[in-house]
Specification:
This protein is of the alpha/beta class. The protein folds into 2 domains: about 130 residues, Rossmann fold; about 200 residues, Dihydrodipicolinate Reductase, domain 2. The chain is built from 11 helices and 14 strands. The protein has an 8-stranded mixed β-sheet with strand order 8-9-10-7-11-12-13-14, covered by helices on one side. A 6-stranded parallel β-sheet has the order 3-2-1-4-5-6, with helices on both faces. α5 runs antiparallel to α11. The longest helix has 20 residues. The radius of gyration is 21 Å and the shape is globular. It starts with 17 loop residues before the first strand and ends in a 10-residue tail after the last helix. The N terminus is likely disordered.
């Protein structure tokens, strides 16, 4: 059986429901992993780990009969758990994933997989040594907007893609709030706003956007150039833009450009996607509707909300015209269905850590470029 890591064989779960232990019950565990696991036949939320009693109690209210663990070691020692889902701050991922693998558990780790390629390589090696599945929760490969864009490209509706612009932007706190007399410690800040925890939008949302860039344009851009803004007293960027330039394919004069923007300085939103090609363009605002639906307790496939439906303009009979776009429903459940099937030895793993590592290397070069104000031309190993 082709395994999750480096094609190595992994131990399979042969019968019965697969017990899942949630490591962390913040946004990731509560809104995403728990509901998706619970709605995937063959998987069952059997345990939760949180150091916060209130979070453990909340999880127990959502999933009756689950074991509540106040320590990670206790979760890893739970014989009813075959798969551990690590949904904790970014800086903890490497250590917690390796610990779970060495304890004999299969692992799903939330994005961002890790903070460096070296971390990721150690995680992959640990999975290979333990003969266990390791996957990264890149649910945004199952966003309706992304799947629809792939369909549009595959059908040739915009011809050969020239430039991808991918953005997730928002409006942050007002300048009045930022310059108020209250101390930083009194202002509401989550762990994502601290560099020590691997915070900042270029790593947080960027983990998804660069992963999508790898799937759409390739794992190894020829050059990377990035510019990050630090417009408040925090030690993570307020906003940033990264330009990826790909080498031309055989017989082509120019390669693809891929531009990624994240941050909180956009009172008027940028398009989520603006893709230009030889025969037309794809334009789409707004984000996939599944996250908001999950927050309402609604689980299952859906297309974009009507106001965020994509638009395709292309040449028809020598004139540019809007053409109908058939939306592909997004479906995060497909991620966990694939993990279940991979654990049973019935399918190849869809999100392999080796593939995700390409985006981690690009993100490392994004920060390197921003710090040095240089175009990065040496991407490191494949």
């Amino acid at each position: 059986m082709s395994g999750a890591s480096s094609g190595a064989a992994h131990e399979t779960v042969n019968s019965g429901e697969i017990g899942v232990g949630l490591a962390g019950y913040g946004l990731a565990g509560r809104v995403f992993h728990g509901p998706l696991v619970a709605h995937t036949p063959g998987l069952r939320v059997s345990a939760v780990f949180s150091r916060t009693p209130e979070r453990r109690a909340e999880a127990a209210g959502h999933y009756r009969g689950i074991a509540q663990h106040a320590s990670y070691d206790a979760l890893l020692g739970d014989s009813n758990v075959q798969l551990v889902v690590v949904g904790t701050p970014h800086d903890t991922h490497e250590t917690m994933v390796i610990q779970a693998l060495q304890a004999g558990k299969h692992v799903v780790v939330d994005k961002i997989m890790c903070l460096s390629a070296a971390d990721g390589e150690r995680m992959i090696a640990a999975a290979r040594d333990a003969k266990k599945v390791l996957s990264v929760f890149h649910n945004r490969r199952w966003d309706s907007d992304y799947l629809t864009l792939r369909s549009v490209i595959n059908k040739g509706l915009i011809g050969e893609p020239y430039v991808f612009e991918s953005a997730v932007t928002s409006a942050g706190p007002s300048q009045a709030w930022l310059t108020s007399s209250s101390s930083a410690s009194e202002r509401p800040r989550g762990w994502r706003s601290y560099a020590e925890f691997g915070g900042g939008p270029m790593r947080d949302w960027g983990a998804h956007l660069f992963d999508q860039a790898v799937q759409l344009a390739g794992p190894r851009p020829e050059t990377v150039y990035a510019d990050l803004h630090y417009r408040r007293e925090w030690d993570v960027e307020t906003a940033g833009t990264a330009h990826l330039r790909y080498a031309p394919a055989t017989g082509k004069q120019e390669g693809v450009r891929f531009v990624i923007e994240t941050g909180a300085i956009s009172a008027i939103q940028r398009p989520r996607w603006y893709v230009r090609g030889s025969e037309g363009a794809y334009l789409q605002y707004g984000r996939d509707a599944q996250e908001d639906a999950l927050k309402r307790g609604e689980v299952g496939p859906r297309v974009m909300d009507a106001e965020n439906a994509p638009r395709v303009t292309r040449y028809v009979d020598g004139q540019l015209k809007d053409v109908p776009v058939e939306q592909v429903p997004g479906n995060y459940l497909a991620y966990y269905a694939n993990v279940r099937d991979a654990l049973r030895g019935e399918a190849d793993l869809a999100v392999k850590p080796e593939n995700v590592l390409h985006s981690i290397r690009i993100i490392e070069n994004v920060f390197r470029s921003a710090e040095t104000r240089q175009v990065i031309t040496r991407m490191g190993p494949n």
